[in-house]
Design goal:
about 260 residues; alpha/beta; 7-stranded parallel sheet; about 40% helix; about 10% strand; Lysophospholipase; Carboxylesterase_BioH; AB_hydrolase_1; catalytic activity
C-alpha cells in the first residue's frame, strides 16, 4: 500500500490549473503530491477556446477528472473552487477519495440558485438564443463586482487578464437542471463516502454563502465554515491562510494526513 497522499485541486469558471500557485504551495508544505488539472479546452486562449468549450458538458469535465483520479496510486483528497467545487462532488460520487473540500461550490441540481446577485451576473447569458450552444465570456464589471469584490484592484486586474471562456452548456446544466435530460448537475450525495468540508465566503456574490450551507446539508458527514470578509477567492491571497487553517483542523479531525516530505508533479 502506497504512502503517497495526493490532492487534486480543480479550478473554477474561466480558470485554469495555473491559477493554483498559492494553493499548490500550501498543500505541498503539508506533504501532498499536488495535481492541478486544467479543464477541457481551458488551456486555449480566450478567443481560440470560445468555440471549442461552448458545448462541453459537466459530464465531460467529470469524466476527465475521474480518469485522472483513477490513474493515481491512492485515492486523493479532492479540492475544488466554484465550478470546481461542484465538479469534485460529482467526481467523489464516482471514484474513491479520502475527502472533499468544496470551496464556494456552484449549485448542484436541487439547490436553489436564483439569488439576485447571481442573476445580475449571469442573466445576460441566458437571455440570448440557445445559450447552451454559446460560450460564456468573462466580463470585467461582473468579475470585479461579483468574484473579486474584496481583492486589491491590481490583483483583480491581473487575475482577469488570465481568464478564458467557459462552457455555456455547463452553465445551462447548472442553472436549468430541469431542462437537462442527462441530469449532468445532479450529485449522488449518498455515494460520497468520505468527509466533506464546504467553505463559503461571507461577501461572495457569485456563489452566495446560502448555497454552501445548503450543499453541506446534503451530506451525512459534512462541515460548513465561512471565511469572514472574504469574496469568492477563499483559496487565494489574504483569505488563503484562514481557509487552510480550517482545512488543517478538518483534516486532523478526519485523520487525513499527508506524508512528511513534499513532492511536486
Amino acid at each position: 500500500m502506497t504512502n503517497t497522499k495526493h490532492v487534486v485541486i480543480v479550478h473554477g469558471t474561466w480558470g485554469s490549473g495555473s491559477f493554483w500557485v498559492e494553493a499548490r504551495a500550501a498543500f505541498e508544505e503539508r506533504g501532498f503530491v499536488v495535481h492541478t488539472p486544467t479543464l477541457r479546452h481551458h488551456e486555449l486562449p480566450l478567443l481560440a477556446g470560445s468555440t471549442q468549450v461552448a458545448t462541453v458538458s459537466l459530464t465531460d469535465y467529470t469524466d476527465d477528472l475521474v480518469e485522472l483520479c483513477e490513474s493515481l496510486d491512492s485515492p486523493p483528497l479532492l479540492v475544488g473552487a466554484s465550478l470546481g467545487g461542484l465538479l469534485v462532488q460529482l467526481v467523489a460520487a464516482r471514484t474513491p477519495h479520502v475527502g472533499v473540500v468544496a470551496a464556494c461550490p456552484a449549485p448542484a441540481a436541487g439547490i436553489f440558485n436564483l439569488y439576485p446577485s447571481m442573476l445580475r451576473l449571469f442573466a445576460r447569458h441566458f437571455a440570448q438564443p440557445r445559450p447552451w450552444a454559446k460560450p460564456l465570456f468573462p466580463e470585467w464589471e461582473g468579475w470585479e463586482w461579483g468574484c473579486a469584490n474584496t481583492q486589491p484592484p491590481e490583483v483583480a486586474r491581473d487575475m482577469f487578464a488570465e481568464l478564458v471562456c467557459e462552457s455555456g452548456r455547463a452553465y445551462c446544466e447548472m442553472a436549468l437542471p430541469w431542462l437537462d435530460r442527462r441530469k449532468a448537475a445532479r450529485v449522488n450525495f449518498d455515494a460520497v463516502k468520505g468527509p466533506v468540508l464546504v467553505v463559503g465566503g461571507e461577501l461572495d456574490r457569485v456563489v452566495v454563502p446560502a448555497i454552501g450551507r445548503a450543499t453541506a446539508k446534503k451530506y451525512a458527514n459534512a462541515t460548513y465554515i465561512e471565511i469572514p470578509a472574504s469574496d469568492h477567492m477563499v483559496l487565494f491571497g489574504a483569505a488563503l491562510p484562514t481557509t487552510m487553517g480550517h482545512i488543517d483542523r478538518w483534516m486532523e479531525s478526519n485523520k487525513i494526513a499527508a506524508r512528511e516530505t513534499s513532492a511536486e508533479v
